[in-house]
């Protein structure tokens, strides 16, 4: 099955700096890669996603890049703000039977210091 | 759009009792719903996938007789933890997807249910 590795597990940055989180996946058939932000005790919220036929996608301060050949994708947050502090999960979507299912990375705890 | 609700938000029960958790898609018809379990400071672990009107597909290592899943309609799935024990205490989160949404593979998550078994 699919295996998703995520690094780093914790990341501390100063407000205004950029943050980068990296993930690798093992199944070349994976074709959709969402990123979720989860605040303590809350639901995971989709912040950006990318399909396998696209190399980069940007939404304001957030961008995701995908390298299909190397099987890795990254989340970039620019001009970080304290409210960006949360756990971020990457995921890879693979078809399992009649459904697509997500395999999640272990998460990155991002702390943005004022 | 794509709002998912979950009820209850937290439940405390005695060991040996059963607990039912409901997951509803409020503004779309969810052909597929997923149930996850999350331990503190850990990632989301998929327990099972359910399609409306079909039996759920359980991940390896998940006891289907212990975690009963019913997906009776396009907007409701339920997870029943039977004969709960303290080791079943966890954060249970559902998600839903639909091929009619912009990205059919996107999963939208409910707010989660925190279960504490005494």
List the helices and strands and how they pair.
The complex is a heterodimer of chains A (114) and B (118).
Chain A: E1 4-7, E2 10-14, E3 19-25, E4 32-38, E5 45-51, E6 56-59, E7 62-67, E8 72-77, E9 86-96, E10 99-104, E11 108-113
Chain B: E1 4-7, E2 10-13, E3 19-25, E4 32-38, E5 44-51, E6 57-58, E7 67-73, E8 76-81, E9 90-97, E10 108-109, E11 113-117
Parallel strand pairs in B: 2-11
Antiparallel strand pairs in B: 1-3, 3-8, 4-5, 4-9, 5-6, 7-8, 9-10, 9-11
Q: Any key phrases for this structure?
A:
heterodimer; A: six-stranded mixed beta sheet; five-stranded antiparallel beta sheet; 0% helix; B: 118 residues; mainly beta; four-stranded antiparallel beta sheet
Describe, in plain words, how this protein is organized in 3D.
The complex is a heterodimer of chains A (114) and B (118). In chain A, 0% of the residues lie in helices and 61% in strands. Chain A has 114 residues and is mainly beta. In chain A, the strands form two sheets. In chain A, strands 2, 4, 5, 9, 10 and 11 form a six-stranded mixed β-sheet that branches. Chain A starts with a strand and ends with a strand. Chain B has no helices and eleven strands. In chain B, the strands form two sheets. In chain B, strands 2, 4, 5, 6, 9, 10 and 11 form a seven-stranded mixed β-sheet that branches. A four-stranded antiparallel β-sheet of chain B has the order 1-3-8-7, with no helix packed on it. The interface between A and B is medium-sized, with 26 and 22 residues.
